[in-house]
Amino acid sequence: MKKNIGSVLALYPAPLVVVGAMVDGKPNWTLVGHLGIIGHDHVLVSMAVPHYSNRGIRENKALSINCLLFSFRQRRYWHGARE
Question: What is the pTM of this model?
């Protein structure tokens, strides 16, 4: 069913995911907001070129994708201190 929503910026809430990769033999994680499901066995992760994790992903041809739980979003941490 199509519905005309008019002339609005139609951004929807996108889930944040934590992308993990091994870089120089050490685990590294980065928070990514651009993830798309391409099919049952494919996902698309969009990361800017300067991300440190990109090097590990290219070298090892492997990454992990971890979805954040709603309960984690309710807490805010800044430099290790809870707000």
Answer: 0.61
